[in-house]
Amino acid sequence: MNKADGIEEFRQRTDAPSRAAAARSVEAFIDIIVGTVAAGREVRIGGLGVFERAYHRARVRRNPNTNEAIEVPGKWVMRFRPAKGVQAVVNKK
Question: How many Å apart are CA 91 and CA 4, to the nearest integer?
Fold first, then answer.
């Protein structure tokens, strides 16, 4: 499923008046999650899971072709931890 498919599914399930209204709702929801996590706070959605920010520290890797050392800088990433119920459903299929 891509974003357009998700918006259409959301429109059908919520009886949104139009696809544009459904798209605005989905976009607002995504913006809220991304903005909150980018600010360093976690987002807990009951029955779904937790979105949080985690830091991957800087490290040195090797190019397998030349064996040259490459410095990989540290960076912040978004992490998702699914709720137990979600994990059970995913593992069942």
Answer: 26
pTM of the model: 0.80
Distance in angstroms (rounded) separating the CA atoms of residues 56 and 33: 20
Cα–Cα separations (whole angstroms), residue 89 to 45, 52, 63, 83: 16, 22, 39, 10
Task: Tell me the C-alpha to C-alpha distance, in Å, between residue 80 and each of 44, 53, 57, 61, 69.
Answer: 10, 9, 18, 25, 31
pLDDT tens across 59-84, in order? 999 999 999 999 999 999 999 999 99
CA-to-CA separations, 40 to 12, 13, 16, 23, 58, in angstroms, rounded: 34, 32, 32, 26, 19
* Contact present, 76 and 39 (Cβ < 8 Å): no
Closest among 79, 93, 81, 89 to 37, alpha carbons compared:
79
